[in-house]
Amino acid sequence: MSAEPILSLSRINTMVEQGYWSDKTVLDYFDQAVAENPQQIAIVDSNSEYQQSNTLTYEQLAQNVNQIALGLIRLGIKKHDVVSFQLPNWWQFSAMHFACLKIGAISNPLMPIFRQRELSFMLGFAESKLVVVPSTFRGFDHLAMIQELRPELPACQHVLAIGASGEHSFEGVLLDHNLALEWDAAAIFAERKFDANEVVQVIYTSGTTGMPKGVMHTSNTLICAVNPYLERLGLDHDDTFFMGSPLAHQTGFLYGVIAPVVLQTQVALLDVWSATAAWSIIDEEKASFTMASTPFLSDLVGSNLIDECCSDRFRLFVCGGAPVPRALVKTAVEKLGVRVISVWGMTEQGAVTSTCLDDDDEKIFNTDGKALAGMEVRVVDENQQPMAVGQEGILQARGAFMFVGYLKKPEAYAVDAEGWFDTGDLAKMDADGYIRISGRSKDIIIRGGENIPVVEIENLLFKHAAVEDVAIVAMPDERLGELGCCFITLMPGFELDFASLQIYLIENQVAKQYWPERLEIIKEMPRTASGKIQKFQLKEIASEFKRT
């Protein structure tokens, strides 16, 4: 399947002239790191499934990447085919992406939390030719799940699993072969190489329609989302990255897979989050930087391992994905001695705004930063007119990081003639150009940095025999930022409790991450004169609830 980017010659020329885009690809950065620093440690992972840690230098990682790439070719993967991998934060995740780049295949990372309902759509829509999963992870049989879905996926030719045996063995099929002795690998890779403006990544994001959209990125948009970020944060080759955010999320992908390679430095990975494990890795690997959502910072601050594991080396925590409480930032600065940087971004663009290292407390505590080099943001009204300083409006963004369309949905690429993209967020901007996210026009909930596709879950619950009407809204949570509160009106003669609701979601194979955390049965929904549910009223009710 060919993923066609929405990319005009005018945009390419402008980005090149401004110095943001070049002919250098993500693969070029990887090959350069291997050539210049072969013995530099590239990845240290922590595989909880097999109770082992793996350390790979850039040279060792490259050897595995080449083996996997040749194995993919033997499987029949062609240029522009989509290869999906639903992997935890293991070294194989990064290796799969760079192997795809070697042979001109498109990487489609998938979150490990996704189950049959999400994957049947995502894999089918992307027409994935190959799916790579862990055999088992966190007690769940991923290989069995994909095998169960195979009849629904006519494009899927192969399924491989890490730790499996036989024909589905990732190791046996992609690593245990001697193809490098038989084939001219360098010539094959050169023939298949992407240019900097071809689509190299399709990554799904939740949308207002409830169905996820496949965001398409090129080497230029990905690299450009990394370089200004690294420059603003003052990160360089001497820094060691720690990444506990999922690599299959754009945060982990950009700043846990690509950024360390750009700097030719090390990343230490954690596959199952816990503050205890995180502190152990931060201490052992002498990590200096990490980026994650608010709950990660909250857990680190609340750990009793601070005195033992936190050193002057650990200096920078970039926090995004959910509002960062002022009290948490102050506590983190005092207890950890780190610099906390607030950031705002989205799958379509990566990090767009951030605070700066030399910002005062007012900016750090009360804003989501200003635009990074290569990007612009503005706040407008419904008529696209700029709002006054401090006034809430629609947040728009444009620039070099901007994605190049949604897979198979060119009509959804809502970028105007001047390049402005409606982010779906509401914001205020101060006189210095710093924004503060104040709300969302999108109908989503951000739970621990993850977007919950509200409409999709509502549509599913509508099918329940007991449900007359349903609306899911956000309720505040100190650790995760937001949780889902489900309001339901019942059909006459029916009853429904929270346990029954959960059983229904299990039966419909909905990822647990998407479940609402509270159920409220009400007599009727608050509505406008035209019949639309007034969710703001439900949000006011939910704002009084606390998680039980």
Structural class computed from helices and strand pairing: alpha/beta
Q: Unreliable segments (pLDDT under 50, ≥5 consecutive)?
A: none
Q: Report the sheet with the most strands, covering strand number, pairing sense and barrel closure.
A: 9 strands, mixed
The radius of gyration is: 23 Å
- Alpha plus pi helix count: 19
Classified by CATH, the class of the domain at 445-542 is: Alpha Beta
Give the N-to-C terminal Cα separation: 47 Å
Tell me how many strands there are: 26
Shape: globular
Helix fraction bin: 25-40%
* Strand line-up across the major sheet: 2-1-12-11-13-14-15-16-17
Based on the structure given, which CATH architecture of the domain at 445-542 is correct? Answer: 2-Layer Sandwich
CATH-defined superfamily of the domain at 445-542: ANL, C-terminal domain
- What percent strand? 25-35%
